[in-house]
Design goal:
There is one protein chain. By secondary structure, this protein is mostly helical. It has one domain. Helix content is 57%, strand content 2%. It has 16 helices and four strands. The strands form two sheets. It has a two-stranded parallel sheet. Helix 4 runs antiparallel to helix 5 and helix 4 crosses helix 11. The longest helix has 27 residues. 38% of the residues are buried.
Length: 354
């Protein structure tokens, strides 16, 4: 067996997290946060949806007007970034924090996600699985590590996709998911869904197909180069944003993962990381405050910062956050977070890197 090595771990984070997080009760953490922060405002939610949508339309209008290769790189980045911001609004819809009305959440969730080629209900349901099983090696849905033996047995294509170009594979994930996970986000008979959810999945998949058809029509009518510049490249900027942010919130050598025998909801939720995104933090609606979001996903995004202040006081040293640069965190994960040991109820990422 190849000898494995890890980066130096921060003992204070690991000791406090692994020893104290199990002492917290969900009810105690909820009581630490003012009740009004759990209450959303439909007008605020719609405002953010409209604001992001108007920015996207405005950027598209400017790009069409200028039609300049000097502006296109700026457009690609800004448009992709606001695609990501709009996705986060739809993410609130998926959690039911956009509105107290289910039909409103479903309506605006589709309006936010369908233009981004995300099947709202299919994604919403698998994302719910992720939140219900965060940090559980056996049941988590997103960015879970493989065991060392599973890693060794991966074929080269899967290893390349998962460890080399993982920031680009979200569209593929929607179709075939990840190693050890079967089922598509588009098919109503997928094992992701219960029989009662099949109709919802069909609705989202149908809207997705209509969006793909519309994009095909636009490319045929106005040229596929225009479609590439105005939509496809910004779309992949959005994909990178989505993948980078979610990866960084769940991937680090200091974060514990639990096998089912040693897992519970609170411990799993506390194994996420708060990250700082600088000027992008308000643009993507403070999703960097990820710990409080995982514990209480019903808190709307515009209340996360204030709720996080109260949660950090309650958690003390058991709250995991990082102020290191995003690129340093990404490189550390890319190089050292490849698999976890085959044995142990609480494990940490490691790799073959020296």
């Amino acid at each position: 067996m190849t000898q494995t090595n890890t980066l130096p771990i921060q003992p204070t984070i690991l000791e406090t997290h692994s020893s104290k997080s199990k002492e917290f009760k969900l009810s105690d953490l909820k009581n630490a946060i003012p009740e009004d922060l759990f209450q959303g405002s439909l007008s605020k939610s719609i405002f953010y949806f409209v604001f992001d949508s108007l920015v996207i339309v405005s950027l598209l209008s400017i790009a069409l007007y200028l039609d300049s290769w000097l502006f296109y790189p700026v457009y690609w980045f800004l448009q992709g970034t606001f695609f990501w911001a709009l996705f986060v609004v739809g993410h609130d819809c998926g959690h039911g924090s956009f509105s107290k009305y289910k039909w409103v959440n479903n309506l605006f969730g589709h309006l936010a996600h369908t233009p981004l080629l995300v099947p709202f209900h299919g994604w919403r349901i698998s994302h719910r699985t992720h939140h219900n099983n965060t940090g559980n090696l056996d049941k988590d849905e997103s960015w879970y590590p493989l065991s060392e033996s599973e890693y060794r047995n991966l074929n080269w294509i899967s290893k390349f996709l998962r460890y080399k170009v993982f920031l680009m594979v979200f569209p593929l994930y929607l179709f075939v998911r990840s190693p050890k996970k079967e089922g598509s986000h588009f098919l109503p008979n997928s094992n992701l869904f219960t029989p009662s959810e099949k109709g919802q999945v069909i609705t989202s998949t149908t809207l997705w197909l209509l969006m793909v058809s519309f994009l095909g029509f636009v490319g045929f009518q106005f040229g596929f180069l225009n479609l590439l510049n105005l939509y496809v490249i910004p779309y992949f900027v959005f994909v990178v944003w989505l993948s980078l942010v979610t990866y960084l919130h769940h991937t680090d050598t200091t974060v514990p993962w639990y096998r089912t025998a040693n897992w519970n909801y609170v411990k799993g939720a506390l194994s996420t990381i708060d990250r700082t995104y600088g000027i992008f933090e308000p643009i993507h609606h403070n999703i960097g405050t990820h710990v409080v979001h995982h514990i209480f996903s019903k808190i709307p995004h515009y209340n996360l910062l204030e709720a996080n202040v109260h949660l950090k006081k309650a958690l003390g040293d058991s709250h995991i956050s990082s102020n290191e640069s995003l690129w340093k965190s990404f490189w550390k994960g890319y190089k050292y977070c490849h698999f976890v040991p085959d044995t142990g109820n609480t494990v940490f990422y490691t790799s073959d890197e020296k």
